[in-house]
Structures are given as structure tokens and as C-alpha cells.
């Protein structure tokens, strides 16, 4: 599979503070790439570097197989739709007037603008002033502006930020639809749940470093789910194992591998602890994420 | 660049730029010529030795110095603030338009608006003079030269305020500097021209083509070399400062 985005040792420092540290990013073509990380982990800075809005301190960026340089940027940019940090839109103008500005900026035809507005379901609100839009409508307008140029790559920074569950679901469905049309979507979020439902490839950033990159399945394989031992005598069980916590069903242990689990069950059974069941806890992406990032300031 | 300027005109929609400009142009013309309609003024209107047109030009210069810095600051601030509130800097950058290009487009658009506005303003003052009953023949050269220089000084300050409004998100700073500039411009009319040249807003006074000489109002010739130097300096500073905006990381 071709990579639409590839970075090599991408680094950004602001004075002494390293915001992005040696990032090797690979975004395969036609996927929804979920770029996860806590607030301040370097997601927006990385995206800005990919768009040429911020200069890297070190490292290289390749977009569509071409190194990103000031010359190539001008040629590549028309293929990239983006929304960084906050949705753009002049509040004193209507949605349609804003779209016309984007159209004039990029030399687009009316059909492209109308299609982009229809895709984000804003056609019937296009004549309202943007300052009267809800946050969800502003986000959708921002996405329409990114889509109007018929991009091959969409780079969206927290597009669901501040949206209600219905708005989040709407954007999620839209992005999945766009990926279905062959557009590569790179979407950042600190909301694990929504990324879990739309991304086929994940990149997890913590303190500016990539701590995981790959498919959702690979991510789950990297993490050991907690072991739950169902017992009516958790106090007795605690005397035979270290680091366990009491849960309604019995006790719960983290980081116990297969062989260690077998030994543990044997030890408890030998100590006459009544064991009614042994199972692995259901893992959400959030659990895996927390596990990988050491529960450092995540939502 | 033409596309950029047209975009700026699109963005002006509902910013009330044109009504604001019209109100101020009419107000400047009215204030400049108000003294013509006083009772005492009638006696001098037909007296060529009293140089009523030069006196009117001096009055116009003072009112323009008082109002133009505020007008240009407000126009520049309104046109630039929308980029902060609408995330326009990023939107333009992702379309390949750098902040410096955006600032130049804003300057060009406002300069295009100020051109007829300054011309009409001078014509209104001249019209008011005629309406008031000045029968002495007008000398068009000082009026034309002053109008041209007033326009260019306005454009120069527009550049300064656009840069300031782009650099500092709080628009009170840009408009506040404009108000301070108005005070300095009027103050500069009261001090020797040698000192006015050293104050940026002093150029509203330096370009004056009328002055007082021993209690009489006469046409004067401003120091064109200094004025040209001021324009070159502002042009260079704007070019450098807006390029610096391109390097700034938002």
C-alpha cells in the first residue's frame, strides 16, 4: 500500500522544549488515519508541519511520494484539504459567501462549492451568517472548505471538538464516507471513543513521540487485558497475590501473561480459595491507550 | 495579486467599510469648511489678499490631520481583524497565500477605496468654498498636490495599521495607536516643520501646502525630499515587517 504521508525523524523544538520528537509517520492511501494523543502531545504541530505552516526543526516530510519543499508545497497544496485547530469562517459573511471566497482563492467552479456544501449537509443553511452558526455547523463549513478542492488527502485537526454526540456521529459518518470515496483522511483527536469507531490505522502520540502506529488489531495485541478471578473470598485471595484490586466479582490483576495466569490460578486453588471463573477483561481502545501512555493526562 | 484584492473586496461585505468612509469624508469636508459659514468670514471671501482658498486649505489640513489617522486605523483594523476571528490566516496559508501577500492585498484594496474618498473629500471642501461664496480664483496646484500627498500619507499609515492589526490580535491597540496618531498629527501642525518631520504622524502636517506667515495665511511648499524619504521608509518597513509575519509561527 502506498503511503500518502511519510515523515522521517520529524522534530519540532520551540527553544528548549521539544514538541514533536523524531516522528516516523506513515499514512497509507485510502485509510482513515486516527492520530491520537493527549492535549499538548504535538498533534496540531505535526499537522501544521505536514501542511508547511510550521517549519520542522529536523527531519523530512514526503507527501504523495514527493519531499515537501517550498516549491513542491505550492504544487501539492491543491490536493490537500485541511482544517487546523479551529474551523475557518468569516463570521460577518454567510456560509455561501465564505465558500465563494475559498472558491476564488483556489480557482474552483460553482459545482465544486455546491457539492462540498451538499456533502456536509449545509446547503439549506448556506445563506445564514456564519456567526449565527452552531459549533457543529461551523465545523461542517470548515470541512466543506477543505473538501471543495476535491482533495486526495484531508488533514483534520480535532474536527469533532466541542460537538454533541449527534454532531460527532455525523462527522464520523461523513469521514467514513469520504474514505470510501478514496480520500485519505488523517484525523486527530483526544477523544478515543470516536477514533475507535472510524479509524482503520492508528498513530498514538505521547509527549511528542510516536508510541504506537498500526492497525487497531495490532494495537490490541500489544496490550495484555486485565485478569479477573471470580471468587467469593477476595480477602483471602489478596493474601496470596500481589498488586490485585478487589472488584465486585472477586479480584482484578493487571499485566498478567498466559503462563503467569496459570501459575496464579494454581496457587489460589492450592490455598483453597474458591474460584468460580477466570477471564480476561473486555478492553476498550481507551484501556489500551491508557496502558500505552501510562495514564498521562488523557481523557 | 488582483485575485487577492478582489477577495478583500468580497470580505468587506457587511463590514460597513463604505458607509464609514462616506460618513467620515462628508464629516471632514463639513468640519473643514464650517468656518466659511460664520458671520465674520464673509468679509474675507472676496478679498484676494486674505487668500480665502489658502485659509480653507489650512483648515482642511488641520481637520484631515485630526481625523485621517483614526479613519485609516479603523479601516485597517476592521479589514485585518476578520483574519484573526475567522482563522483566515490559516485558511489562506493552506491555499498558498502567505500572511504578507494577504497584508499587501488588504493594503491595495483599502488604497483603492481611499483614492476616490480623498479626491471626493477635497472636491467637497472646494465645493463648500464655492457655495460659501468665495469668488477669488482658486489655485489648483496646491490643492491637487496636497490631496495627492494626503492620499499617499493615508495609504502609508494604512500599511502601518494593517501590520499592527495583523501582529497584535487585540484591535484596541491598532485603533488606539491611530487615536494617538491623530493627537500627534494635530500637535505637529503647531511645532516647527523640522520637528514634525521626525514624528511619523507629523507628515500629516509636513504635507501641508498652506501655512501662516506673520499672521497671514499663504500657500507654502512642503519639503518634498523628506516626504519622499518617508514613503520609501514606510514601503521598506512594510515589506520587511510583513515578510517577518510569514516567518512567524502561529
From TrEMBL, chain A:
The keyword Nucleotide-binding applies. Belongs to the ABC transporter superfamily. It comes from the Bacteria. It comes from Sinomonas humi. Keywords: ATP-binding, Nucleotide-binding, Transport. The keyword Transport applies. GO terms for molecular function: ATP binding; ATP hydrolysis activity. Pfam families: ABC_tran. PANTHER family: ABC TRANSPORTER, ATP-BINDING PROTEIN (PTHR43335:SF4). This is ABC transporter ATP-binding protein. SMART domains: AAA. PROSITE patterns: ABC_TRANSPORTER_1, ABC_TRANSPORTER_2. Residues 5-232 form the ABC transporter domain.
Automatic annotation (TrEMBL), chain B:
The chain crosses the membrane at residues 53-76, 107-131, 143-165, 172-191, 224-242. It comes from the Bacteria. Keywords: Membrane, Transmembrane, Transmembrane helix. This is ABC transporter. It comes from Sinomonas humi.
Amino acid at each position: 500500500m502506498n503511503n500518502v504521508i511519510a515523515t522521517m525523524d520529524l522534530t519540532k523544538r520551540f527553544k528548549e522544549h521539544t514538541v514533536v520528537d523524531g516522528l516516523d509517520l506513515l499514512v497509507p492511501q485510502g485509510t482513515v488515519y486516527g492520530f491520537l494523543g493527549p492535549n499538548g502531545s504535538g498533534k496540531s504541530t505535526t499537522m501544521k508541519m505536514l501542511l508547511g505552516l510550521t517549519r520542522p526543526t529536523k527531519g523530512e516530510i514526503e507527501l504523495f511520494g514527493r519531499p515537501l519543499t517550498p516549491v513542491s508545497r505550492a504544487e501539492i497544496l491543491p490536493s490537500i484539504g485541511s482544517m487546523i485547530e479551529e474551523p475557518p469562517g468569516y463570521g460577518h459573511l454567510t456560509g455561501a459567501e465564505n465558500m465563494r471566497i475559498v472558491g476564488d482563492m483556489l480557482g474552483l467552479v460553482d459545482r465544486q462549492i455546491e457539492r462540498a456544501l451538499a456533502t456536509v449537509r449545509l446547503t439549506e443553511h448556506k445563506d445564514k451568517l456564519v456567526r449565527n452558526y452552531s459549533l457543529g455547523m461551523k465545523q461542517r463549513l470548515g470541512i466543506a472548505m477543505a473538501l471543495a478542492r476535491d482533495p486526495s488527502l484531508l488533514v483534520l485537526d480535532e474536527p469533532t471538538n466541542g460537538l454533541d454526540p449527534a454532531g460527532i456521529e455525523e462527522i464520523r459518518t461523513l469521514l467514513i464516507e469520504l474514505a470510501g470515496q478514496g480520500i485519505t483522511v488523517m484525523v486527530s483527536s483526544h477523544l478515543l471513543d470516536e477514533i475507535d469507531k472510524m479509524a482503520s490505522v492508528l498513530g498514538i502520540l505521547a509527549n511528542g513521540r510516536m508510541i504506537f502506529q498500526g492497525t487497531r488489531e495490532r494495537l490490541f495485541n500489544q496490550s495484555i487485558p486485565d485478569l479477573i478471578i471470580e471468587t467469593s473470598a477476595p480477602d483471602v485471595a489478596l493474601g496470596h497475590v500481589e498488586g490485585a484490586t478487589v472488584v465486585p466479582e472477586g479480584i482484578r490483576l493487571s499485566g498478567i501473561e498466559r503462563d503467569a495466569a496459570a501459575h496464579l490460578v494454581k496457587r489460589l486453588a492450592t490455598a483453597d480459595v474458591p474460584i468460580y471463573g477466570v477471564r480476561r477483561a473486555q478492553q476498550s481502545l481507551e484501556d489500551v491507550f491508557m496502558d500505552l501512555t501510562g495514564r498521562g493526562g488523557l481523557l | 495579486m488582483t485575485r487577492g484584492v478582489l477577495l478583500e473586496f468580497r470580505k468587506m461585505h457587511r463590514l460597513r467599510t463604505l458607509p464609514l468612509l462616506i460618513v467620515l469624508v462628508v464629516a471632514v469636508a463639513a468640519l473643514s469648511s464650517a468656518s466659511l459659514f460664520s458671520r465674520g468670514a464673509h468679509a474675507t471671501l472676496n478679498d484676494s489678499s486674505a487668500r480665502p482658498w489658502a485659509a480653507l486649505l489650512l483648515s482642511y489640513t488641520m481637520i484631515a490631520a485630526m481625523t485621517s489617522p483614526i479613519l485609516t486605523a479603523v479601516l485597517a483594523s476592521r479589514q485585518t481583524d476578520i483574519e484573526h476571528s475567522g482563522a483566515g490566516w490559516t485558511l489562506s496559508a493552506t491555499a498558498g497565500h502567505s500572511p504578507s501577500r494577504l497584508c499587501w492585498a488588504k493594503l491595495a484594496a483599502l488604497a483603492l477605496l481611499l483614492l476616490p474618498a480623498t479626491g471626493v473629500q477635497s472636491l467637497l471642501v472646494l465645493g463648500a468654498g464655492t457655495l460659501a461664496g468665495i469668488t477669488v480664483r482658486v489655485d489648483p496646484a496646491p490643492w491637487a498636490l496636497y490631496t495627492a500627498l494626503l492620499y499617499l500619507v493615508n495609504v502609508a499609515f494604512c500599511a502601518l495599521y494593517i501590520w499592527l492589526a495583523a501582529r497584535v490580535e487585540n484591535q484596541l491597540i491598532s485603533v488606539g495607536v491611530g487615536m494617538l496618531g491623530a493627537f500627534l498629527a494635530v500637535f505637529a501642525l503647531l511645532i516647527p516643520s523640522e520637528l514634525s518631520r521626525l514624528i511619523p504622524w507629523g507628515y500629516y502636517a509636513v504635507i501641508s501646502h498652506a501655512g501662516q506667515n506673520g499672521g497671514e495665511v499663504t500657500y507654502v511648499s512642503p519639503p518634498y525630499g523628506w516626504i519622499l524619504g518617508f514613503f520609501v521608509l514606510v514601503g521598506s518597513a512594510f515589506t520587511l515587517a510583513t515578510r517577518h509575519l510569514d516567518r512567524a509561527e502561529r
